[in-house]
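Record type: monomer structure entry
Structure origin: computed from sequence
Chain ID: A
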Amino acid sequence: MALKDIVALRMYTRVARLGSFSAAARESGLAQSQVSRMIAELEANLGARLLSRTTRAVAPTEAGLEFLMRIEPILAAVDDAENSVRETGELRGLLRIGMPATMGMRVVIPRLSTFTERHPSLHLELLLEDQWQDMVKDAVDVGIRVGQLPDLSGTAKQIGLMRRALVASPSYLERHGYPQCPDDIENHRIVGGPAGSQVTSWHLERDGVKSSVHPNAQISINNTAGALTAAVGGLGIVSTTSWACAAELKSGTLVQVLPEWKMAELPVHAYFPMGRTTRMSARVFVEFLAAVLAEDL
């Protein structure tokens, strides 16, 4: 396979994933006409139409999607082969990372400069989504998830633990009273979020004494940032992770409820949908993130 063929294949994956010739051209530093010509030549060589083009969008055809799913692991293997012999240890290629939105914005991205400066030729694509995503379909190299993992076909590695807390706004607590014990929680308004809306009970412990609370959410939000905004707005008590609400606790817009009672920590996993064939850059990133979690959380 000639070098120009690899370049064309890489360009096709970017156009297909970004849904835009112009976006792929900007990303690569090429003219849009060059990108269009590369894809046209690739389609001609394969004898198949890979992309459906309209004035509004570009999307893979059925054949193009099948080709995309098959060619991306091959290109990942090429990246790994190049990275394995590069003496500087610098990584190159594309790394797609999926993680919860609030975790990405509040924990990972503010600390990412060290990693990107170490690997300036590695292109990172962050998919921030609180809900579980189809990582194979989205070609995610590594997914970072908080909490118990569902049954999955890939491999997973626990890289840290997240502390949990119950929080509410001072104004809400002034209106509705400060809970003195876990049983009092059941008489309060609850904001359900990704860390708490799907559970039927909250388990707390203090000095060896365990207590279970059965929250009944008045409002549920499928986004951690939204749930915290609701709590700041005085809508009720929310169960969240300590990193998610750190800024609000520091500013005083939220305060911890029953701080002497501890909730079970949530495991943080790195999930590799490709198993053993996971690219080197994904494993290096996970090592970096594990160090961040150990230091800051």
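Annotation 1: The chain has a mean pLDDT of 86.
Annotation 2: Residues 164-264 form a domain with the D-Maltodextrin-Binding Protein; domain 2 fold (CATH 3.40.190.290).
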